[in-house]
Amino acid sequence: MARQEENLISRNRTHNAETSWEVRKRTVWKNLWHQKVKAKLKHFMWKCLQNCLPTNEVIFKRIGHGEGRCSCCGEGMETIEHLLFFCVNAKDVWKLAPVRWDGLVDKQHNLWLWWEEATKSTSKDCGPERVSLTINLFWQIWKARNRIVFDNEFQNPPNIVSKAQVEWLEYEQARVEEIEQSATDNIREHQTRRQTARDDDVCLFTDAAISARMIRTGQGIVARKWNGMIMKAKAIVNQYKGEPMKEEALAIRNAMLMAEQVGWTKIKIHSDSKSVLDQIHRGNEYDVNIATILEDVQDLTTHFERYSFVFIPRTENEISHALAKFAVQLVDDIEWEQDFPVWLMDLVRKQMRVVALFCN
Ligand SMILES: [Zn+2]
């Protein structure tokens, strides 16, 4: 019987208490079953919640073997909560991880209560991704612990985080295939409607995001065909305190570098930063903080057969905006040429449906 269950039932041994516990248990299980992670990870998470993984504490209590000390730090009792939250190793992982659960710190002493609270966020924006990535992080922390126990090999925290991120992305990508197919269908329908608008420009959408709290900046760059189809996307993260104008200028410059690298010769660069675009259009009197970047942008224009800089309002720049906000949470830059993340494709589909409506 799970520790949490024991606690709850021993507090009040009435039929009602047991029933409401059963209801909570069913809700948690149902929610877990709907998480977008491999079945293996669902079972792992359920075992964590039921406190039946063979942690040293569980082994010690069950068969009196060992002292129950943590295999990683040797300092605390190896409970599931210690392993996942309080161990020095886990703390380092959470410092580097692209997800934050700062609001739930007071629930860390009881994984069950923590989890119930965490999964409530599922209904909000980005909730499902946050939770599924978190399960992957728990899994990698547990696997790293096992490597110490069985192979005497220490996994460093950046490695643990990047493994969790990679596995999470791989799973997301597998789901994307199906969505991409329906996006392609949508594009075909869309194409027949606006054949005349066709040209060979690559449209680059750029945006920047800044997190003062995390001391990080993110840039989102999305390359799309004339028909809206995504060709490439890039999320760039920098670990410093950024300034909006400078980051917007850098995003434009990096979009051009990306285009040059791929070999696109006709580009249309979109940004929602009016002041940066005004300076580019003027071609002089640059703001001193971004002068070097904009000079570089002017230099880069000579590498293209055709180029233009276009201002778009934030509302039309939703996708690179979302990507920039995503980038802020990353440890390393990520670039996609296919198998785009599911949330990105969802935004594309949403936007294309709106465009399709206007074209009727
Ligand atoms: Zn420890």
UniProtKB/TrEMBL annotation:
Pfam families xref list: RVT_3, zf-RVT
Reverse transcriptase zinc-binding domain boundaries: 25-94
Sequence ranges assigned to domain RNase H type-1 in this UniProt record: 206-327
Gene3D superfamilies, alphabetized: Ribonuclease H-like superfamily/Ribonuclease H
CDD domains reported for this sequence: RNase_H_like
Stated name of the protein: Uncharacterized protein
Organism: Coffea arabica
Gene behind the chain: LOC140038519
